[in-house]
């Protein structure tokens, strides 16, 4: 029986290989030939068998490139004929008919001349075609390549939570979606911005164009998801309250796929603020019930407080596990002056920098076009556009799948930071850029074959001292976390000057996340009351082991030395993640040693 099994297995395997071979091999009329006898001998042999010698192959000595004009240019079979006797000639060491290989030519495919668009600002969209020879950006976000794979955001709905959207803008009107729009400030269905002399309310319209400006309409620019539907929620032009925010975050969660927000608490370097109870619930409802249970996707700008020494961990919106926090880099891969550092940032796009760095072109108020859009405000809509492409590739991915895809596909590229490190799961990560520059093509490719991750488990451990030994809730099956996603640290710290504190978390695998850096302007004596810090730097690592919270206090001049320092009262670690692990690569999966299945998509194995 054992022998029969082996035979059957062999049969299945060889059938598969034959099938694959006949499907994928394309033979050309080019040969590589190794002839030790020198160039004139090569010429003789070429003419003897009817080839043309095209000369040595690059720097490879004795290797020649032969071409045969009477052999079919592309064939699925090895071509036979008198020419094939060259393989048996004693003066020939080795000869090989060349096969067509499947290679994605990222640069050639991304050549802007390859795509002809008549939008007048197309040539100024450097961040989309930065493979240009004279471009200063060196790494692609591979947006063109994603388009060329056929993804343009069709049937995906994005809305911009901001100061309104100019819905009749000629570059937006075709993609504008009334059902994805609302005016929370005016309490009506028309989110048209309020016009004033300073054009204060231009922000939302600028963000909307980045996502879904119409392509090839002889107007302005091309949106990253230029066939997506775009809406606007007008909510920043008035008093922003918990109600306003909660309403905005919860508008038509079954209709709108992606909410993009480029705003948050003051970036003054001294504020610690986050969503109130209603907005918190709106986030939770969105991820649980939105998109018919797959979860709303909230994309968030990490903040513009770099110059004020602000730290994005003090912004509870960007710090939330429910938001995809996005950072920015300049065209040269330098840290922009406005960038805020923190451990919750997931990914990065290009944006503005110093005055000589290029800015972003997009739609502007009063039916115009601008080349001056800047800051992390640029980056959230760009990622919203990229996610729209991924959702077109696979509409069934969940809110957590989207984060997994960004972790997996974003790249360090040429982004400069002195803290790039590889975590224990092999992901490169930085406090400036998260997992790096987004890659639209990799996003659509991975999304297409993605299998949804198992349910989220949360395991909570609480201690009074600064070190927690966690089992990852091994004894509670519905909470057990083996592989990590987000880690949330909740602290109660009483302290005379909050800006003097620096907090780090060290994972059981030794990955250090800086949860808070000192803030020069933060003189508050309020400390942190149940504040949640979040890190994504341990993504994919194992949860079990010792978690250490390190708090350092560097008393500044500004502090009253009479006030005693009262330390950490408690801290809690929420380990978010999954019970099982995902294997991404293709492999053979054998059941009972008989039936072998070639698994192309990701396959889940229980631990
Ligand atoms: Ca209105
Ligand atoms: Ca256009
Ligand atoms: Ca901030
Ligand atoms: Ca976040």
Give an account of the 3D structure.
With 607 residues, this protein is of the alpha+beta class. The protein folds into 3 domains: 21-99, Alpha-Beta Plaits (2-Layer Sandwich), CATH 3.30.70.850; 112-448, Rossmann fold (3-Layer(aba) Sandwich), CATH 3.40.50; 457-603, Sandwich (Jelly Rolls), CATH 2.60.120. Helices cover 19% and strands 26% of the residues. The chain contains 10 helices and 28 strands. Strands 7-8-6-9-10-11-12 form a 7-stranded parallel sheet, sandwiched between helices. Strands 1, 2, 3, 4 and 5 form a 5-stranded antiparallel sheet that branches. Strands 17-24-19-22 form a 4-stranded antiparallel sheet, with no helix packed on it. A hairpin with a 5-residue loop joins strand 15 (421-422) and strand 16. The radius of gyration is 28 Å and the shape is globular. The protein starts with a helix and ends with a strand. Residues 1-23, 102-113 and 581-607 have low confidence and may be disordered. One calcium ion binds at residues 183, 186, 188, 190, 192. One calcium ion binds next to strand 11.
Structural topology:
Elements: H1 2-24, E1 27-34, H2 39-48, E2 52-57, E3 60-67, E4 74-75, E5 94-99, H3 106-109, H4 143-148, E6 157-162, E7 182-183, H5 203-212, E8 229-234, H6 242-249, E9 258-261, H7 277-289, E10 297-301, E11 323-329, E12 347-350, E13 360-364, E14 368-373, H8 376-393, H9 399-409, E15 421-422, E16 428-429, H10 440-449, E17 457-463, E18 467-470, E19 483-493, E20 501-506, E21 512-516, E22 528-535, E23 545-553, E24 568-578, E25 581-583, E26 587-591, E27 595-599, E28 603-605
Parallel strand pairs: 6-8, 6-9, 7-8, 9-10, 10-11, 11-12
Antiparallel strand pairs: 1-3, 1-4, 1-5, 2-3, 13-14, 15-16, 17-24, 18-23, 19-22, 19-24, 20-21, 20-23, 25-28, 26-27
Helix pairs in contact: 5-8, 6-7, 8-10, 9-10
The structure holds calcium ion (4 copies).
Keywords: Cleavage on pair of basic residues, Glycoprotein, Hydrolase, Membrane, Protease, Repeat, Serine protease, Signal, Transmembrane, Transmembrane helix, Zymogen
Pfam families: P_proprotein, Peptidase_S8, S8_pro-domain
InterPro entries: Galactose-bd-like_sf, Kexin/furin, P_dom, Peptidase_S8/S53_dom, Peptidase_S8/S53_dom_sf, Peptidase_S8_Asp-AS, Peptidase_S8_His-AS, Peptidase_S8_Ser-AS
């Amino acid at each position: 029986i054992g022998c029969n099994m082996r035979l059957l297995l062999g049969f299945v395997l060889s059938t598969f290989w034959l099938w694959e071979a006949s499907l994928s091999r394309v033979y050309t009329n080019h040969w590589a030939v190794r002839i030790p006898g020198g160039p004139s001998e090569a010429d003789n042999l070429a003419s003897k068998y009817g080839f043309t010698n095209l000369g040595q192959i690059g720097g490879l000595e004795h290797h020649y490139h032969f071409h045969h004009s009477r052999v079919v240019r592309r064939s699925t079979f090895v071509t036979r004929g008198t020419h094939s006797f060259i393989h048996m000639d004693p003066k020939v060491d080795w000869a090989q008919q060349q096969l067509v290989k499947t290679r994605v030519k990222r640069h050639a495919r991304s050549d802007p001349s390859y795509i002809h668009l008549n939008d007048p600002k197309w040539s100024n969209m450097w961040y989309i075609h930065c493979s240009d020879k004279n471009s200063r950006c060196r790494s692609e976000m591979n947006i063109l390549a994603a388009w060329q794979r056929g993804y343009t955001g069709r049937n995906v709905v994005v809305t911009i939570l901001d100061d309104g959207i100019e819905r009749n803008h000629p570059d937006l009107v075709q993609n504008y979606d009334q059902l994805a729009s609302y005016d929370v400030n005016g309490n009506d269905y028309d989110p048209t911005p309020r016009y004033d002399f300073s054009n204060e309310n231009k922000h939302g319209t600028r963000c909307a164009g980045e996502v879904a400006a119409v392509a090839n309409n002889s107007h302005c620019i091309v949106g990253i998801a230029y066939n997506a539907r775009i809406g606007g929620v007008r909510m920043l032009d008035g008093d922003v309250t918990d109600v306003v925010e909660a309403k905005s975050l919860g508008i038509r969660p079954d209709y709108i796929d992606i909410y993009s927000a480029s705003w948050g608490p003051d970036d003054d370097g001294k504020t610690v603020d986050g969503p109130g109870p209603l907005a918190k619930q709106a986030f939770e409802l969105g991820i649980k019930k939105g998109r018919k249970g797959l979860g709303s996707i909230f994309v968030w700008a990490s903040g513009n407080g770099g110059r004020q020494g602000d730290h994005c961990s003090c912004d509870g919106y960007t710090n939330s596990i429910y938001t995809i926090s996005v950072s920015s880099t300049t065209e040269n891969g330098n840290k922009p002056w406005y960038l805020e550092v923190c451990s919750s940032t997931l990914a990065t796009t290009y944006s503005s920098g110093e005055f000589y760095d290029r800015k972003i072109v997009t739609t502007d108020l009063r039916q115009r076009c601008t080349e001056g859009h800047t800051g992390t405000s640029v980056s959230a809509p760009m990622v919203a556009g990229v996610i729209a492409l991924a959702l077109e590739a696979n509409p069934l991915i969940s809110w957590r799948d989207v984060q997994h895809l960004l972790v997996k596909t974003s790249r360090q590229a040429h982004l400069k930071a002195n803290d790039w490190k590889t975590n224990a799961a092999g992901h490169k990560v930085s406090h400036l850029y998260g997992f790096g520059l987004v890659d639209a093509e990799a996003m659509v490719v991975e999304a297409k074959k993605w299998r949804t991750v198992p349910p989220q488990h949360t395991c909570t451990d609480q201690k009074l001292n600064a070190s927690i030994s966690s089992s990852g809730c091994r004894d509670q099956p519905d909470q057990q976390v083996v592989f990590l996603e987000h880690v949330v640290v909740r602290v109660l710290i009483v302290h005379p000057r909050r800006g003097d504190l620096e907090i780090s978390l060290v994972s059981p695998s030794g990955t250090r996340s800086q949860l808070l850096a000192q803030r020069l302007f933060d003189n508050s004596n309020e400390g942190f009351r149940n504040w949640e810090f979040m890190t994504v730097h341990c993504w994919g690592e194992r949860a079990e082991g010792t978690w250490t919270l390190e708090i350092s206090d560097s008393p500044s001049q500004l502090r009253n030395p009479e006030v005693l320092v009262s330390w950490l009262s408690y801290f809690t670690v929420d380990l978010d993640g999954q019970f099982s692990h995902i294997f991404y690569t293709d492999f053979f999966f054998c059941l009972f040693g008989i039936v072998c299945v070639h698994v192309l998509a990701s396959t889940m194995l229980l631990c």
